Amino acid sequence: TRMSKLKLIGNNTVRRVLKYEELIPAIETCLLNFSRGKIRQPVRSSVDIEQHKGVFLSMAAYDTVQDSCAMKMVSFYPNNTQHHSLPCIQSTILHLQPQTGVLLAVIEANAITDMRTAAASAVATKYLAPDNAKVLAIFGAGSQARSHFYALTHVQQFQEVVIIWNHTVPNGEKLSKEVSQSFKNVRFCASAKEAAVNADVIVTATNASKPFLKGEWLKNGVHINSVGACLANWREMDDDCMNQCDLYVDSREGALKESGDIILCQPKILGELGEVIEGGCRADRNSKTIFKSLGMAAEDVAASQLVWDKVKDTE
């Protein structure tokens, strides 16, 4: 094949072409193929940029079933929002042609990361949440909270959505205005307990490093999608919460290496979400469940392939 021109694809293009109705099934397939051992994915590597309180990560995967390959680079600077008015997380995907290793596209990955993470939680909610889940509670008011609102309301008819935030009030108000336009029953709440006790599905998408979600608040049958606390010494959920719930993960290897909630509490992992999808691991929807999602390169590959398929023939 001739060398085609390298495409640069921005977040706005990604948001325009990537739709949850295609992404959620693609991520479901990806999780299944991962648990079947069909995806080559080394554990992500990280470089500490301690002088600037930052971390730089790189993560790559090759999906042997879809024949697609990509690598994502992520920088995580927790102080960026406060000190520089920049996002805490910035990321870029290099999308390759598997047959030749040619670089096809450089894709801004903030939108992809938000959407593929939320899509994985939507798949988990489909398999683990109680059948008649009515109340969704989202902890956090950042871009992950936003993407989770759209992805989860895509797979489940909720009667009420409660968004909880405490320290970044302007963020919460911005998010509330936006989601209220597409969903009439949105409430905002400053109390974690008040939101948690009524919730059938909970999303924790915060920058918290200390646990804020307590097991004593949990309703029977609740399903929790936990996407924050992605460092080994960070937590979102207390021990009681971890121990009461059946625990599922995207990747055992990733969870045991990176999730503070798991490393510091040592609960039993019942299975990977892909094993639940496959049917080899039977999940009980009526018990309390957690999907601990660290995010995987395989999910970025699935999402970037969808984006590439949409834009490759455009100028």
From TrEMBL:
Pfam family name, one: OCD_Mu_crystall
InterPro entries, A to Z: NAD(P)-bd_dom_sf (IPR036291), ODC_Mu_crystall (IPR003462), ODC_N (IPR023401)
Catalytic activity annotation: (3R)-1,4-thiomorpholine-3-carboxylate + NADP(+) = 3,4-dehydrothiomorpholine-3-carboxylate + NADPH + 2 H(+); Delta(2)-thiazoline-2-carboxylate + NADPH + 2 H(+) = L-thiazolidine-2-carboxylate + NADP(+); (S)-cystathionine ketimine + NADH + 2 H(+) = (3R,5S)-2,3,5,6,7-pentahydro-1,4-thiazepine-3,5-dicarboxylate + NAD(+); (3R)-1,4-thiomorpholine-3-carboxylate + NAD(+) = 3,4-dehydrothiomorpholine-3-carboxylate + NADH + 2 H(+)
EC nos: 1.5.1.1, 1.5.1.25
Enzyme class at the top of the EC tree: oxidoreductase
Subunit structure: Homodimer. Binds the thyroid hormone triiodothyronine (T3); T3 binding inhibits enzymatic activity.
Name of the featured protein: Ketimine reductase mu-crystallin
UniProt source species: Ciona savignyi
Classification lineage: Eukaryota, Metazoa, Chordata, Tunicata, Ascidiacea
